[in-house]
Amino acid sequence: MKLKHIDALRGIAVLLVILVHTNDSVNGVSSPLLYFSKYGQMGVQLFFIISAYTLCLSMERHQGEYLKLLNYAIRRYFRIAPLYYIAIFIYMLRSGVNIYIDSGIFTIDGKYNFINIATNLLFVHGLYPPANNNIVPGGWSIGTEMLFYMIFPFVYTLYRKIQRDKSILYLILPLIMLFINIIVQYVIGVEPTNGGFIYFSIINQLPVFLLGISLFFLDKNQILKSFTYQLDIILFIFLTAISMMLMFKFHIPYRDALIPFISGLSFIFLYDFSSKKNFLNRQTLMNLGRVSFSVYIFHFLFAWDLSRTIYGYCKSFLPGDILLVMCFIITTILTYKIAVITENLIEKRGINLGKLLIEKIQNKSVS
């Protein structure tokens, strides 16, 4: 089942991510646009919400499947691994090219050592700080998501046991996880900071994933049906405003545990709005959303390298705001063009290989 609004939301998520990383390459941006651009990092949390929701959809579809947990693992692996492995090679090669440009000597950056690459290949880099976000830019989110995949079947089973008349638990469970997260951080004496290993970690992001599962069951049981789309928009704006104020104005303890959660909560209402109204469900966004994984993986090549070059040439005669918008548009278009190719050549082939393997497993169970 394809849900257009899910693809549109993926498109919004990846645009937010492109914006925040393009902003890294441009100086002199006005405060309103700067704040909005930096908030774009919450696009990852929107991805997490959608990912958890669609995992639940997939689990529902394959309930009666033979060896369903093995098949689940195969689907997740072949969905992510082929493109990610190629990205490791491309970004390793990029590091050598950058060193050659700077020094005239082609050599690979030392961070591409055996253990860092191995942990990324095994998707356990979310547990190893030196490899967590250094091999593939933005790779921390892939590591964190793969760790979530490992525990998802257990969490999903727990949610399925909740009766409809106890649906308040759908919201209580993410809150409990948020509370546990903060308590653990307090006990070990480490507070997350934006961009740090603890911030990226599965325990700090798990409450957001749980919000996505809660959204699925709230949606399935039509509990959000009573919310008007006007109320959805009001709550989305209100929660986004709180999250932005925590990010830019109020430095309270454990704010970098609260910000992803509050942003994730706001995206529940954005989802509900988009499911009721077609306002966001534009073909351009849906097309972008369908290739959002490839866009996410490769946009750094343009958001960083190309945008820095453009900024260097144009900063003397164009203001920062115009440069940011221009680099953002160029990055989005070029990355989309590449993503369409990599989706067909790599992503779809990986997914089809996983399907073929599952079919063989199913056929053996019948014979």
Mean pLDDT: 94
Would you list the SSEs in sequence order as H and E?
HHHHHHHHHHHHHHHH
Gyration radius, in Å: 21 Å
Percentage of residues assigned to helices: over 70%
What fraction of residues sit in β-strands? under 5%
- The poorly predicted ranges are none
Distance between the termini: 29 Å
What count of helical segments does DSSP give?
16
Assembly state of the chains shown = single chain
Global structural class: mainly alpha
Q: Let me know the number of strands.
A: 0
Shape: globular
- How would a textbook summarize the main sheet? none
**Any idea how many domains?**
1
Give the key terms.
367 residues, mainly alpha, 76% helix, acyltransferase activity
Write a structural description.
This protein is an all-alpha fold and 367 residues long. The protein has one domain. Helix content is 76%, strand content 0%. It contains 16 helices and no strands. α1 packs across α2 (31-39) and α11 (229-248) runs antiparallel to α12 (255-276).
